[in-house]
Amino acid sequence: MKTEKLNIYDENQNHLGIETREEVHRKGHWHETFHCWIVSQEEGAGRIHLQLRSSNKKDFPGLLDITAAGHLLSMETVRDGVREVEEELGLALDFEDLVPLGVIKDQIHQADFIDNEHCHNFLYRTKNADLRFELQKEEVAGMVSADFQAFTELCIGKREHAAVEGFKIASDGTAEPFAKTISKKDMVPHSPEYLKQVASRIKQMLEKK
Known about the structure:
The protein is an alpha+beta fold.
């Protein structure tokens, strides 16, 4: 497997050099990621789409996460990050289809995993609630959606649970219905401030005409 190399930065996004992905997470270097959140809207109500991470993933298997996301490699620009949406979900979007939400810091610190990210966040708004996903099964095991207001309240601590529904890939490779009442324990443990910022910025964009 080809070794991924990432640009590394200080906390203020000043470039410091290049390191392997493994070393970045071992030493806790700040690095850049691309995050795309998809929200479908019908008659004013919004539903946010979340991916179910594959059980084979090294980090956070089986947890719900950002619609599509990934690391920006050392030779890539932010525009190149849109490839993650097609690779993971099978949706061919142009970078111009996305609404920028800005760079938001995210930190996940565990015993052998120190993740300090400058996350380039984007929103994709669609009126099509019935999105057709073609999942990269090595990465993504299913897709669910949640009422955006309920998701926001979960992120900011105003509620402890939210309902999600969608599908997951069964052992025979077919998609089967999936519904669950989730708490934050069912989600990748992004920092609370990151989730609050994401929810707030998406809400602002959805309220614009």
